[in-house]
């Protein structure tokens, strides 16, 4: 039976590029290690089980260049294995420590098993190649992996320098091709930050569609006929899909979202903080208390008192919530289908790390949801944006408004009192990068290396993560240092190139630290900003 409408689940997978070979270990590298253990490997396990069981499924997922680069970096791969080995050792100690604490002993064994499964999958099944593991599901036709900007730069705040926008897009698309061996169909705009003139660059590099927050569509001109339940087509020919606020709220909302249920695991109680310091110290980096990933309590309710976590109750609740989410989408689609001349599409984008890292039961919820959609109803069907565009290639032409999915919906998160100081430096560096690219059309090998490294430093400084961290107040000193370090290295390279005195030893050291995009070509910054070719 044909469905009445579609659901497109979109997982945005991104982390800032954090790699510090100059230190034997580095605390912020744990952002990647935690995400691999708690989000990316669990998602891969779910995809494998769905395929093994013959369940039909379709998902869309962005994997940003910084995340993929870290996945593929041998240093970080080695450090992740060491990280897992420490966790496995800690979990074994916890199994022994809790043997007379029945409310925690089963949980300790669960974590021990989880860490061993993660190690076995990462080392043996995936051969340390997580990019390849995700690519497999794209090749099987289940996962639609989309591209993103080179370093997750916030594009609307580069409006005055369109060559910087174009370079973020071009380098991101080129990197996608190098990893996945094909052209990307879709593109995730960092922070869903859309500025209407940028559509021309996305189309120039072959992108067919992207996503906007709800108000970016609803404030389009002319007004959208179908709200966010069908894509718009920009005058440049870019399809834009709008986020459905109702389905997002059920998962994201701090007050109404599923992850806040009292039966789910409490994220903020971790043995890294709870246990005696001398016991836990061997498993802490630099002796600083931090999350280990071993958490024994459920949310329980408001206040500091937390009851022991019960995995069975949590899984039952995840199944219940998956059923509730599906029921709501069915009713939503039934209503919309009666008002539209085409099948509506509900677009539900989420940060991938919500599933597993922040919401421990999130991968199980997703597994339940996919299976229920496949077998328990016939109103909705999972799809991807490209499949929807194949079915409905003709869509209303309109120009969406500038928008983001940040607080208040526009630029404030990335441009306010805590972080506005960075933009004078970023804009000046972008201007200088273009001047360098135009000044050195055919340099010798050493100068080429310096020019390519200057491009890397600019791109890394432009990452939206640093401004976001400054705004939210977490790890602010690190975010400020990363910004000033990259700008400082860029300026030093600029001065050396201007004076013709490249310090090769210093350059090699910087190349070894900031080694993202090994095949970058700085000349993208000299590319003329002309009209799109007629073939597009």
What does this structure look like?
This protein has helices spanning 30-52, 65-71, 74-97, 102-125, 130-139, 162-180, 199-204, 214-218, 245-252, 271-274, 277-280, 311-337, 362-375, 385-391, 422-439, 445-461, 464-472, 476-499, 504-513; strands spanning 5-13, 59-63, 143-148, 186-188, 209-212, 232-233, 239-242, 345-351, 380-382. It is of the alpha/beta class and 536 residues long. It starts with a strand and ends in a 23-residue tail after the last helix. Strand 1 (5-13), helix 1 (30-52) and strand 2 (59-63) form a beta-alpha-beta unit. It contains 19 helices and nine strands. The model is unreliable at 530-536 (pLDDT under 50). The chain has a domain at 415-526: Families 57/38 glycoside transferase, middle domain (immunoglobulin/albumin-binding domain-like), CATH 1.20.1430. Helices cover 49% and strands 8% of the residues. Strands 1, 2, 3, 4, 5, 6, 7, 8 and 9 form a nine-stranded mixed β-sheet that branches.
Short description:
By secondary structure, the protein is α/β, with parallel strands linked by helices. The protein has helices at residues 30-52, 65-71, 74-97, 102-125, 130-139, 162-180, 199-204, 214-218, 245-252, 271-274, 277-280, 311-337, 362-375, 385-391, 422-439, 445-461, 464-472, 476-499, 504-513, and strands at 5-13, 59-63, 143-148, 186-188, 209-212, 232-233, 239-242, 345-351, 380-382.
Features:
single chain, 9 strands, alpha/beta, 536 residues, disordered C terminus
Strand content: 5-15%
CATH class of one domain equals Mainly Alpha
CATH topology of one domain, what is it called? immunoglobulin/albumin-binding domain-like
Cα-atom Rg, whole angstroms?
24 Å
């Amino acid at each position: 039976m044909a469905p009445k409408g579609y659901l497109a689940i979109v997982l945005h997978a991104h982390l800032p590029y954090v790699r510090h070979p100059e230190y034997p270990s580095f605390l912020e590298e744990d952002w990647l290690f935690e995400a691999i253990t708690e989000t990316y490997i669990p998602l891969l396990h779910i995809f494998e089980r769905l395929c093994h069981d013959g369940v039909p499924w379709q998902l869309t997922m962005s994997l940003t260049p910084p995340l993929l680069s870290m996945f593929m970096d041998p240093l970080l791969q080695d450090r992740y294995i060491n990280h897992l080995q420490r966790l496995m050792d800690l979990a074994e100690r916890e199994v022994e420590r809790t043997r007379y604490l029945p409310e925690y002993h089963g949980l300790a064994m669960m974590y021990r098993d989880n860490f061993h499964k993660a190690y076995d999958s990462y080392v043996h099944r995936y051969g340390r190649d997580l990019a390849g593991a995700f690519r497999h599901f794209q090749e099987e036709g289940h996962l639609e992996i989309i591209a993103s900007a080179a370093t997750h730069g916030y594009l609307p705040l580069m409006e005055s320098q369109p060559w910087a926008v174009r370079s973020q897009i071009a380098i991101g698309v080129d990197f996608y091709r190098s990893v996945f061996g094909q052209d990307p169909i879709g593109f995730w705009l960092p922070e869903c930050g859309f500025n209407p003139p940028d559509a021309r660059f996305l189309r120039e590099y072959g992108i067919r569609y992207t996503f906007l927050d709800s108000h970016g569509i609803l404030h389009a001109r002319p007004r959208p006929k179908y709200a966010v339940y069908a894509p718009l087509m920009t005058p440049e020919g870019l399809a834009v899909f709008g986020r459905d606020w109702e389905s997002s709220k059920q998962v994201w909302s701090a007050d109404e979202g599923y992850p806040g249920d009292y039966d789910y695991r409490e994220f903020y109680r971790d043995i890294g903080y709870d246990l005696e310091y001398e016991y836990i110290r061997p498993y802490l980096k630099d002796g600083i208390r931090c999350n280990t990933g071993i958490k024994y309590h459920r949310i329980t309710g408001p206040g500091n008192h937390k009851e022991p976590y019960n995995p069975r109750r949590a899984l039952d609740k995840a199944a219940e919530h998956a059923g509730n989410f599906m029921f709501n989408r069915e009713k939503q689609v039934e209503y919309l289908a009666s008002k539209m001349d085409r099948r509506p599409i509900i677009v539900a984008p989420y940060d991938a790390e919500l599933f597993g890292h922040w919401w421990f039961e999130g991968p199980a919820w997703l597994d339940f949801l996919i299976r229920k959609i496949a077998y328990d109803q016939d109103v909705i069907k999972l799809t991807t944006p490209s499949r929807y565009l194949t079915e409905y290639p003709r869509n209303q032409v309109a120009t969406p408004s500038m928008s983001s999915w940040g607080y208040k919906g526009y630029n404030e998160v990335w441009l306010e009192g805590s972080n506005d100081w960075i933009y004078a430096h970023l804009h000046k560096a972008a201007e200088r990068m273009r001047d360098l690219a135009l000044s050195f059309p055919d340099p010798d090998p050493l100068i080429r290396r310096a020019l390519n490294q200057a491009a890397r430093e600019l791109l890394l400084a432009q990452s939206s993560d640093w401004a976001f961290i400054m705004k939210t107040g977490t790890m602010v000193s690190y975010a400020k240092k990363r910004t000033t370090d990259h700008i400082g290295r860029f300026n030093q390279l600029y001065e050396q190139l201007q004076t013709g005195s490249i310090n090769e030893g210093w350059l090699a050291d910087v190349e070894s630290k900031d080694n993202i995009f090994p095949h970058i070509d700085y000349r993208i910054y000299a590319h003329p900003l002309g009209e799109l070719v007629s073939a597009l």
